[in-house]
Automatic annotation (TrEMBL), chain A:
<feature type="transmembrane region" description="Helical">
    <location>
        <begin position="216"/>
        <end position="236"/>
    </location>
</feature>
<keyword id="KW-1133">Transmembrane helix</keyword>
<dbReference type="Pfam" id="PF00528">
    <property type="entry name" value="BPD_transp_1"/>
</dbReference>
<feature type="transmembrane region" description="Helical">
    <location>
        <begin position="70"/>
        <end position="87"/>
    </location>
</feature>
<dbReference type="InterPro" id="IPR000515">
    <property type="entry name" value="MetI-like"/>
</dbReference>
<feature type="transmembrane region" description="Helical">
    <location>
        <begin position="248"/>
        <end position="265"/>
    </location>
</feature>
<protein>
    <submittedName>
        <fullName>ABC transporter permease subunit</fullName>
    </submittedName>
</protein>
<keyword id="KW-0812">Transmembrane</keyword>
<feature type="domain" description="ABC transmembrane type-1">
    <location>
        <begin position="90"/>
        <end position="269"/>
    </location>
</feature>
From TrEMBL, chain B:
<comment type="similarity">
    <text>Belongs to the ABC transporter superfamily.</text>
</comment>
<dbReference type="InterPro" id="IPR003593">
    <property type="entry name" value="AAA+_ATPase"/>
</dbReference>
<dbReference type="InterPro" id="IPR005892">
    <property type="entry name" value="Gly-betaine_transp_ATP-bd"/>
</dbReference>
<keyword id="KW-0067">ATP-binding</keyword>
<keyword id="KW-0813">Transport</keyword>
<keyword id="KW-0029">Amino-acid transport</keyword>
<dbReference type="InterPro" id="IPR000644">
    <property type="entry name" value="CBS_dom"/>
</dbReference>
<dbReference type="Pfam" id="PF00571">
    <property type="entry name" value="CBS"/>
</dbReference>
<dbReference type="Pfam" id="PF00005">
    <property type="entry name" value="ABC_tran"/>
</dbReference>
């Protein structure tokens, strides 16, 4: 016997979306203007000065985070972006990634703390994260387009949703991984849960949380191209344009700029994560190698 | 409430699991731990004890006996399922979270098995943590931490990070952190178990010294009986969640409450736990210095011994005399027993551990005299007693004839003859000074 039935799930989604639009139009407009404002000002900040100034600033950041090698590589990489005439687009994408990442972190770290503190919260949050991460990213674009209209904002929204998951997961993992006895010691001396979170759990979980933030940034960058499809512009817009025109050369130039941005952001955030490693997370008795750098 | 009681635990139960209250009800009705295992894991069953102010109270048991859970009920880290825990007059099961935090800050602090130091803070900041929680200003708390670090022997290490310290030093920081809180009660959860034996011994000795100086009340958890015996003023032995015996180390060793405890104490190094005072026998061959040689000789003859312990009227120990020497004195009609007193062996003090007595016992032909703090003779230890104490043979030797070893006493008749021969011309006004 043939099973012949159709669940109108899509229709329900449409109805729900319509309802959301009608009910929360004001909220969406507000979110849109906030994101747009943040993006525009950051973009202005990056594009207005001469590109050389920005490159020097980036190289200085790289030097502070890791050393002169990364600083040199950064300078060469960004000069290359200028050389292939992708500077403005790269800075647009950079601004999008930064805005999306900041929002994603602001949401995901507290969510991770919540998940670490309660098994129930963890059980609820986990499947939502799975859903967000595995649903094809472009699917987010459609409702985002409807809610926030064409432009950079739906790109930012889709990027936030797609990139948030590792932030939550790594935060939960990091906090749960803090030595139980140390947390217990906090309670034993009469600390409040909030003070234990601030003074013990978060500092000790920081390397793991930073690894999560690094992942958030990488995922956000990978969304840049898809964001380009909804008119977010930037390097994504260039890639989409080259696809439409079958312009392999332009596609490569824009793609290379994405790679350079990615390497810069990855190396800088990774070394910030390492620097946040406290004076030896190892338990007693084990040799203390990295502790010397803290002395 | 008795002021001497620092910590009082009454009928405390702790059950982990789905239906702890029901499990406690059944345990109270006489069910065993296994019978209620479907309802939850009973970690502590009906624990009751008082810890007196200024004592070291040791809770000893193997892993899984519930000792770590028990100690965590004492500061509310693991709230008990039933029963009451009274810390310095406050029943901590009835108070709010905020009040409980105050109790932890002011009355009871803790030292952890794996030290539980904060690796991202310096040694000084770790030591000062309790003060930080209490809201003490930074400069003051660091000054106080430095003082306590000095106390535990870590002066000048304040700027290091915990990972730069050895295990023993890290636990000193853990101890300093607890001492810095200036609470009267200190909970120590297997505090020295993660350290290697030499360091452990050193830490134990330091703890005893600190306790003597500071007068803290200490609840110490351990699975090591030797440690328990060394540290404990009293010991509670736990098995399967229940306290099976509470007593002094001597009690536990000499009167184990059941086979389990007896089996447990089999392996203990008895020579370190038992002291001269705990195994000594009453001294029988005691003569008074002012009693004179004749008296002493008569006493030795009556007791059939070749030697006697000489004391003065206040029982202050003077030395020993041998029958042959005393007989020479008697024969030469010397009035003063002091001429024959030897000071070769001992005396040993009552608190000396047995381990230090063997050498002396080997060298000494006669039982070792035991004296108290004022130098008064309180007992003697024949070699037989020393051996009996080692083998866990009942140390009451009333039925075992004490063989007071060589040299053999002079035959009785010879002594009597000498006494009779000299009795005419010695005026002995102060006879009867023996014993």
């Amino acid at each position: 016997m043939d099973l012949e039935f159709r669940i109108p799930l899509g229709d329900w989604v449409d109805v729900a979306l319509d309802w959301l639009l009608a009910t929360f139009a004001g909220v969406f407009a507000f979110i849109r203007s906030v994101f747009l404002g943040a993006y525009d000002s950051l973009e202005w900040l990056l594009i207005t000065p001469p590109s050389l100034v920005i490159i020097i600033v980036f190289a200085a950041i790289a030097y502070a985070a890791k050393g002169w090698k990364l600083a040199l590589g950064t300078a060469v990489g960004f000069l290359l972006i200028v050389g292939v005439n992708q500077w403005d687009h790269a800075m647009e994408s950079f601004a999008l990634v930064i805005v999306a990442t900041v929002v994603a972190i602001v949401i995901s770290v507290p969510a991770g703390i919540l998940a670490a503190s309660s098994a129930t919260a963890s059980a609820i949050i986990r499947p939502i994260l799975d859903f967000m991460q595995t649903m094809p990213a472009m699917v987010y674009l459609i409702p985002a387009l409807v809610m926030f209209r064409v432009g950079v904002v739906p790109g930012i929204i889709a990027t936030i949703i797609f990139s948030m998951a590792p932030g939550v997961r790594f935060t939960e993992l990091g906090i749960r991984g803090v030595d139980k006895e140390v947390v217990e010691a906090g309670y034993a001396f009469g600390s409040s849960p909030g003070s234990i979170l601030r003074k013990i759990q978060l500092p000790l979980a920081m390397p793991t949380i930073m690894a999560g933030i690094n992942q958030v940034i990488m995922l956000a960058l990978s969304m840049v191209v898809i964001a380009g499809m909804v008119g977010a512009g930037g390097l994504g817009g260039e890639v989409v344009a080259s696809l439409n025109r079958i312009d392999a050369g332009l596609g490569f130039e824009a793609g290379l700029a994405v790679v350079i941005l990615a390497i810069f952001l990855d190396r800088v955030t990774a070394s910030v994560g390492k620097a946040s490693r406290p004076g030896g997370r190892q338990r007693a008795g084990r040799p203390a190698k990295q502790s010397l750098q803290n002395a | 409430m008795n002021e001497q009681i620092a910590l009082s635990v009454q009928n405390v139960y702790k059950v982990f699991g789905k239906r702890p209250a029901e499990a406690v009800k059944r345990l109270k009705a006489g069910k065993t731990r296994e019978e209620v295992s479907a309802l939850g894991t009973a970690a502590v069953i009906d624990a009751s004890f008082d810890v007196r102010a200024g004592e070291i109270f040791v809770v000893m048991g193997l892993s899984g006996s519930g000792k770590s859970t028990l100690i965590r009920t004492l500061n509310g880290l693991q709230p008990q399922t039933a029963g009451s825990v009274v810390v310095g007059g406050t029943d901590i099961s009835t108070i709010s979270d905020g009040e409980l935090r105050k109790v932890r800050q002011q009355k009871i602090s803790m030292v952890f098995q794996h030290f539980a130091l904060m690796p991202h803070r310096t040694v000084a900041d770790n030591a000062a943590y309790a003060l930080e929680v209490q809201g003490v200003a930074k400069a003051e708390r660091l000054a106080r931490a430095e003082k306590v670090l000095k106390l535990v022997g870590l002066e000048g290490w304040g700027d290091k990070f915990p990972a730069e310290l050895s295990g023993g030093m890290q636990q000193r920081v853990g101890l300093a952190r607890a001492l810095c809180a200036e609470t009267d009660i200190l909970l120590m959860d297997e505090a020295f178990s993660a350290l290697d034996p030499l360091i452990r011994r050193e830490m134990q000795e330091q703890l005893v010294a600190l306790q003597a100086d500071l007068g803290k009340t200490i609840v110490f958890i351990t699975h090591d009986l030797n440690e328990a015996m060394f540290l404990g003023d009293r010991i509670a032995v736990m098995r399967d969640g229940r306290i099976v015996q509470i007593g002094t180390p001597d009690d536990i060793l000499t009167h184990p409450a059941n086979d389990y405890v007896a089996q447990f104490v089999q392996d203990v190094d008895r020579t370190r736990v038992l002291t001269a005072g705990s195994v000594m026998e009453p001294a029988r061959a005691v003569v008074n210095l002012s009693g004179g040689p004749r008296n002493a000789l008569r006493t030795m003859r009556d007791l059939q011994t070749s030697a006697a312990f000489v004391v003065d009227r206040r029982r202050t120990f003077f030395g020993t005399v041998r029958d042959r020497d005393v007989m020479h004195l008697v024969e030469s009609r010397a009035p003063d027993l002091a001429a024959a007193v030897r000071n070769g062996n001992g005396p040993v003090r009552a608190e000396t551990p047995l381990s230090e007595l063997f050498g002396l016992a080997v060298e000494s032909p006669i039982p070792l005299p035991v004296v108290d703090d004022e130098g008064r003779l309180v007992g003697v230890i024949p070699r037989v007693t020393l051996l009996a104490a080692l083998g866990n043979v009942p140390s009451s030797t009333t039925d075992i004839p004490i063989v007071e070893s060589a040299p053999a006493p002079i035959p009785e008749q010879e002594v009597t003859r000498t006494l009779n021969k000299t009795s005419m011309d010695v005026t002995t006004s102060a006879e009867g000074g023996t014993r």
